[in-house]
Amino acid sequence: MKILLTGATGYIGKRLLPVLVSKGYTVVCCVRDKIRFSPPEPLRKGIEVVEVDFLKKESLSAIPKDIDGAYYLMHSMSTSTEYEKLELEAARNFRETLDRTQVRHVVYLSGMINDDSLSKHLSSRKAVEWELGKGDYHITTLRAGIIIGSGSASFEIIRDLVEKLPVMIAPRWLKTRCQPIAIKDVIDFLDKTLFEEKTFDKNFDIGGPDIYTYKQMLLGFAHARGLKRHIGIVPVMTPKLSSYWLYFITSTSYRLATSLVSSMKVEVVARDDKINHILGIAPMDYPTALRRTFSAIETNEVVSSWKDSLISGRINQSLSAFINVPTNGCFVDKRVRKVKDTHKTIDNIWRIGGQTGWYYASWLWKIRGILDKFNGGVGLRRGRTHPDRIDPGDSVDFWRVLYANRKEGRLLLFAEMKLPGEAWLEFKIDDGKLYQTATFRPKGLWGRLYWYSVVPFHHLIFNGLVNQLAK
Prior knowledge:
Strand content: 15-25%
CATH class of the largest domain: Alpha Beta
Number of domains: 2
Radius of gyration: 23 Å
CATH topology of the largest domain: Rossmann fold
């Protein structure tokens, strides 16, 4: 049987894919940019890849007609101020396209929308559910609240707050109730729902057995980590101040923080647990979900992370648009060093950023990250998902990976910090030499002034970096 998987490069899609392949399905992975799709080698025989954009009807002809089931996992929390309109358009195009196929069942993962007063984000999810429900196929909507798992936006925000702040003066939405669910359980629900006739043309809330306030979740995390934390609630903190509070303390972007704050004011508690009995699933409790997540982090088994989604940075289009480094009108800092041990140097390059740091004058990189954060950029807090594995599309601090090929010894990064222009950083090994090239394409006079103002720092940082990598 053939299954269509949208959002194949996303947080949920990356985790659902191996489960579907292991069941013997042929999975048709929908991606907007094939450059970002790097599935593990064992999965490749069980998948087909189609490059489509559900906002571009002309690209949808690539979707095969002989699909039997489909997952709709596409969400766009804050990539555009018009994301509600765009999400609805994407859902309509998806429905019209699938109506021309033999698809029997569609599963949509949404958010809990039981409150009378919904945020823009949750209202958009509800509108998408309604649009998808008009198709000539059976549909099941699973509505989840806070997802607990390594790399999920919710978990990483909780982790940042608890581990960085012994004392918190927090907004009043920390009193809002929610029903967290482990990522493993979400994947189980998605897997077992497909083709289950008892779920056809219905919607279900999925959640764990525990109901907490956000404050209780934070304190529960602190207890699990053996940390003492004190939280005070400020009743007058505005949504804008709450967004800034999240933005400066956690690794989230300001746009995402704004969307999250508006949603966190809405109670997300399941109506019932009917779906648990239909599918025979007993979701794990919050402490167990935390323990599983800590274990995955400690053993470097983080399969996917929200930080690697394009929503976490400034790129809002295909990576292909940036992979060809320009030359005209650009400033270039190029340094070449002989390499003593090629394999060791490649290992060093592939571990760059995150916990490893930048090998030389890392404190200057940290200062640059702080300045970027205060300027509305991503800063260094995103880090990286895996300590020594890099795939195209991954985030590495305030860089985005455009190209990564160990056999070629080439890594190309694009800057997502706030800049008066565009910047690339490339590492390439050829004939026993390491070529390190920083390219900057300025925008206007400010871009040129910026480059000349940082030249002394570039000489210090880039010279030290290439020397350490080549050792």
